[in-house]
Amino acid sequence: MLYSVDAPPTRPRCERCGEAFIDSCPSCGHVLENTFVSRVYFTNGTPVSPPKRPDYCQSCGKPLPWMNKEVRQVEASGLWKLLHPKVTEIAQPRFEAGHYADAVEAVFKELNSAVKILFRKETGEELDGVPLMRRAFTPSKPVLILDDLTTESGRNIQQGYMDLFAGSMAGIRNPKAHENVIISAERAAHHLTLASLLFAKLEERR
Q1: 139-195 pLDDT per residue, tens
Q2: Within a 10 A sphere around the Cβ of 171, how many other Cβ atoms?
Q3: Cβ atoms within 10 Å, residue 23
Q4: Contact between residue 162 and residue 51 where contact means Cβ atoms under 8 Å apart
Q5: Is the torsion defined by CA of 161, 167, 106, 135 positive or negative?
Q6: For residue 42, how many C-alpha atoms fall within 13 Å in the half-sphere facing its CB?
Q7: Going along the chain, which residue ranges are E strands?
Q8: Non-local CB neighbours of 65 within 8 Å, separated by 6+ positions
Q9: HSE (side-chain half, CA atoms, 13 Å) at 17
Q10: DSSP letter string over 79-120?
């Protein structure tokens, strides 16, 4: 835990998580007190929240203790062994370097590329993102068939996965590609698990 210079802790450890409070980087000793304060700042009379807790030391660049803990939790879960090999190949180096949003963005860009190549091979057309996913997996004359479309269950699966593929482009890939999005290690793991499912389902196409 990082404590504020405005309100130094009265106990050595946080009452919520049990972690020791720190005021400097454990790796290089750089003082962190100016990066996180509890005061409310005002700009043109409008209250502004204080800066968020930093994830990395501004001096040496190494992850601070709470970041290491998140990474350790994900690694201890055995996540990388469970994910699709392509997801692990692309995401793990970025994730372990602390670039969680970049890991997710790179994986979903690869997923988009994989579908785009298959779609172009079958149709000669060039689409991207949500329009690509809806056209490629539409239950009515799909280019990429994911289940037995002669059955209601198969059509429901085709529809559901079309929505998942399209939704992952609209709700995950696009925001990260267009904005400076910051996410936690845990949320990155959630997104990578979804990407893994979609890569696996794409490989199972008929």
Answers
A1: 999 999 999 999 999 999 999 999 999 999 999 998 877 777 888 888 999 999 999
A2: 13
A3: 14
A4: no
A5: positive
A6: 3
A7: 41-43, 46-48
A8: 19, 22, 26
A9: 9
A10: HHHHS-HHHHHHHHHHHHTT-HHHHHHHHHHHHHHHHHHHHH
